[in-house]
Structure formats: C-alpha cells, structure tokens
Amino acid sequence: MPFGTLKGFGVTLKHIFRQPITQQYPEYKRPVYPRFRGRHRLNRHENGLEKCVGCSLCAAACPSDCIRVVAAENTAEHRVSAGERYARIYEINLSRCIFCGYCELACPFDAITLGNEFELSEYSRDDLIYTKDMLLAEPIKRVPVQDSDLYDTPIPAYKSSS
Amino acid sequence: MTIVPAEKIYEGTRIPARCPTILDVDPAEHDLDDILTVNFGPNHPSTHGVLRLIVQLDGEHVAGIEAVIGYLHTGFEKTMEAKTYWKGITYPERIDYLSFQANELVFVLAIEKLLGLSTPEKATWMRMCLSELNRIHSHLVWLGTSALEMGAISMFWYAFRERDMVLDLFEMVTGVRMHTRYFQVGGLAEDIPEGFYAQAREFARHMPRAVNDYEGLLDRNKIWLERTKGIGLLSAADALALGQSGPMLRASGVDWDLRKAMPYLAYDEVDFDVPVYPNGDVYDRYKVHMDEMRASARIVGQCITRLEEMRGQPWIADDRKVVLPPREELHTSMESLIHHFKIVTEGYLVPEGQVYVAVESARGECGCYLVSDGGPKPWRVKFRAPSFAALQTLATCLRDTAVADLIAVAASLDPVMGDVDR
C-alpha cells in the first residue's frame, strides 16, 4: 500500500482523539454574537408608549420592500406613541426580508431593532407576515447571547435594549 | 504575467471550433447510432447549483456537451438600477453567494472611485482581512463539496468545520454569517469588536495546520490521484484564449493575480505567495486552492497585526453627504437628522461617469462596470463574473473524458451558478 494513503489514515486516526464539534441543536442553542441580526422587534419607551412614530423611513430604506407602515394621528384620548403620529399598521413580510438591518440603521428613534431570534420557520407563508402586535411582543423563545463587552463596540447603545 | 514553462499538456488547441462552449459529436470518431443523450442536471447535487449539461455519451465517454444556463437568473443587475447606491450594496453579495465579500467590495470600490472618496486606513485593512477570510470560506466550500462528490466524505466534514470558524468571525463582526453588507461606501458599517483580533489571529494560526490535514488526506491518496491527475486538461494558451482568471489560470501555469498585478486596497503592503502550477488538470486546480488558503491565512495574520495598531481610529470616512451620520448625533443634531433622512430616502448623488473596477475574488477576476448618469441610482451595473468565464472552458476540459470524470471536472471549475446567471 502506498505511503500516501497511510498518511491519510493518520489524519483520520488523529481525529478519533479529538472532541466532537457537533452541537445538539434543538437542545443546545449556541449563543449568538451581540451584533446578530435576527427577528425584528418594535420597542417601547419606559412609560409604555411606542417609540415608532410612523415616519416610514424603515420602509424607504428596505432594499427588498418588505415593510409596510400606515401612520395615523395621535389624539389626546388615544395616545399610542410619543410623537405626533403613530404606526396604525406595521407589517414586516419576513419571507421577503433579507435581514440586512437597514431598517434598524434608518430608524431615527431606535424603534425597530433586529433581535436575536432566528427560529422563524412557519408552515404557512401567511404566518410569516409579522404584524405590529407580534413585533411589539416579547419573543417567546429566548436565544442566549455572547459577552457583549467583548464582541460589540460600546457606541451603539440602541442595540442594548433588544 | 509570466507563463511557467510546463511539460507539454497537449498539442495545439482543444477549444471546439464552432463555438467554444459547445462540443459537437464528431461523426468520424463516434458512431452516431451509439450516442446516448443524457441530461445532467439542472437538479443534480453535483452541479453546484442549477447547471444543466446536455451530455452526448458514447458508452462511458463524453462525445459531446452543451451547457444550458439561466436557471438561477435573478435579475440582480437590473434590480440594482432601481435602487439607490446605498440600498444596492445588499445586492452584489447575493450574486456570488460564496465569495460575497469580494462582490460587495468591488461594488463599493466602484462607487467610491466615481465619488472620488478615500477611505480610512482601518477600513482598507479590515476590508482586506475580511476578503481573505471570505476567500478561505469559498475555497473550503469548494474543497468540501468537490471532494464529497468524488467520494471523500470526511473532507466535507473537516472543510465545513473550518468554514464555520470563518462564519463565526463574520457573525461577530457584521451580525450575519453571510451577505454581510458590512462594507459601506466610505468604510465599514461598524467598528471592529474587541474580541475579533484574538479570534481571527487564532484562526490564521489554525488554518495552515488544517490545510496540512486536508493535504494529508488527499495529496497522495491513490483514489484522489486517479480521479484528478491528467483530467480536465486546459493549456495556458487555451486558458488565456477563453478569458480565464484566478485559480483556473494559475493552475494552467500562468502567473496572474490581480492582487499582485494591479494591487488594490493595501495588497502591495502585505507579503504573500501566488501559487502557480503547470499541468492544468483537476489536481493542479486543487493544489492552487490549497496553497491559496495558506496564503490567505498569512494575509489575515498580517492584517490583524496592522489592525491592532489602529484601535480607536475611525472606520468610516467623515463625509456627511455620503456616509450616514453617527448614530448618537441623531438625537442631538438637526443637521445630522436631515442628512440621515436624505441619504436613506433619496440617496446621494454620484457624479456622471463610468468606471470598471476589478478585484481578485475566490474564483478570479470579479469586476464591476458602473455607469452613473449623475443621479442617486446607478444607470447601469454589470458584473464580470469569473464563474461565467470558467464555465466556458467546460467543452474544452471535457474532451475525451469519461462520464465519471465529468463531475470532477465540472466541480474543479468552481462555478457558482448565482454568479453565472446573475
């Protein structure tokens, strides 16, 4: 047998003594890095008002045109956001979304951020259109995040809330 | 460009006369009644995407071949004409989805050339670092899948293990594992996280050892040699005539690398070797890929050394007309907010003109031809896809091969169908 083939077996043998690198995914979730761009979230102020003022800048920034915003006026009886207007309809079509994070970059009020959720599969395409209620709600599944001091720069404070 | 003197590969040219991409069955050599037409693809796991090959078989031998492309046509170039430059950055990375950073880089460099914008040193070096990491990533996918197709399944696991390390680095720096949009016009989207330096340096140290392992498995493996040596021949003259670049050209004995020949970014300041092999067969293409991974790991190490000295320096140019203002200014400065709205909605105006910028991607010369009419959207974008050029050699390489070698040869061209069809 040629020596070269034996060398290959040597590599294989070496790997027997190494730790397996397999991650048992559904049971074990690898922590994502703090900058990870996953499912979108709409944020609220501490007093409960929505940060989104319905300016549609995220929709303008979206390269795949997957965001739909319809704004309405705030009234004294019905105050939803801190600004003059609020988003009456806010929908993201996640089956079109490319997770580029431009909406997050565009939003001047830090209202929309990309969170850490990546388990987004659905049985129906309709379920992938996320409405405002779904985006405002706290995600049911939480994904662990790596140490943000080490893997993120301190400047973007707007990311810490997501 | 120097041509390495090689042993004779073959006499004259093997490019089919009528059309370089179609190999017709020669009635003098084959009995036309024996010819069996087989569709290889478009949905075949070994075509690296959706490539359809109409193969005329005489027994085990490939007598004629014709490649049908277009199954992955997405119209990215046309769509980009309807998007502002800022939004357009997300598109080129999806053209060649394995060497996404190179495509992103070439588009950003083209815009910057039209704008006459210079980038901070840190951005230049980080771009180089990520481009080289991306080259390793692309080569690893190539190695893993090509070896898998020839029966070496463990190669696939080993290559994808290292690939995951690269993707982890991308996720840490940019936020996503692929298609990062991290290179922005003027520099980088975000600063480099502190943890990147150590982890990237560790990877640059680990990678040459991993390549040694791959070579230990394949280099002198009897089956691998039988499947790759002397198969898919392409001489230097034919490679040049068919417009090859990158690993295809270097495996045919032509010393041509844009990083050395026309240095962009800061490639003239780093030290690396360009591997050249003379035989123009599948084995030499494999060797070029292996040596390039080592060279890339070396460049990454040098980039990290330089980047570590640049901590705290700006990562994006300070040009308020083109670059999004710093995040924290949006709440305090009205002027910044106006610039922010202008760039996001309307985009920035790029002076009228046309440029062609080329970089060395993992598969060869990746070029971007950009025409601006002075507006906020490109008038025309055209990408020079190295995979498309590589696919043109298929008819030449596949002459006189057996059908089993068809997969080895098609894989060695390293085509990414997204890049071919665009």
Topology:
The complex is a heterodimer of chains A (162) and B (422).
Chain A: H1 3-16, E1 40-42, H2 57-61, E2 67-73, E3 85-93, H3 102-106, E4 112-114, E5 129-130, H4 132-136, H5 148-151
Antiparallel strand pairs in A: 1-4, 2-3, 3-5
Chain B: E1 2-3, E2 22-23, E3 35-40, E4 52-58, E5 61-68, H1 76-80, H2 85-88, H3 100-115, H4 121-149, H5 153-174, E6 183-184, E7 187-188, H6 194-218, H7 222-228, H8 236-241, H9 247-250, E8 254-255, H10 258-261, H11 282-309, H12 334-346, E9 353-361, E10 364-372, E11 380-384, H13 386-391, H14 394-397, H15 403-412, H16 417-421
Antiparallel strand pairs in B: 1-8, 2-5, 3-4, 4-5, 6-7, 9-10, 10-11
Any overview of this molecule?
The complex is a heterodimer of chains A (162) and B (422). Chain A has 162 residues and is an alpha+beta fold. Chain A has a domain at 31-136: Alpha-Beta Plaits (2-Layer Sandwich), CATH 3.30.70. Chain A contains five helices and five strands, in the order H-E-H-E-E-H-E-E-H-H. In chain A, the strands form two sheets. In chain A, strands 2-3-5 form a three-stranded antiparallel beta sheet. A two-stranded antiparallel ribbon of chain A has the order 1-4. Chain B has 422 residues and is an alpha+beta fold. Chain B contains 16 helices and eleven strands. Chain B has helices spanning 76-80, 85-88, 100-115, 121-149, 153-174, 194-218, 222-228, 236-241, 247-250, 258-261, 282-309, 334-346, 386-391, 394-397, 403-412, 417-421; strands at residues 2-3, 22-23, 35-40, 52-58, 61-68, 183-184, 187-188, 254-255, 353-361, 364-372, 380-384. In chain B, strand 10 and strand 11 (380-384) form a beta hairpin. Classes of the chains: A alpha+beta (162), B alpha+beta (422). Chain A binds chain B through residues 2-5, 7-8, 10-12, 14-15, 21, 32-33, 35-37, 57, 60-61, 63, 98-102, 105-106, 108, 114, 146-147, 149-153, 155-158, and chain B through 83, 87-88, 90-91, 94, 154, 158, 161, 164, 168, 171-176, 179, 181, 189-196, 213, 216-222, 225, 324, 326-328, 330, 337, 340-341, 344-345.
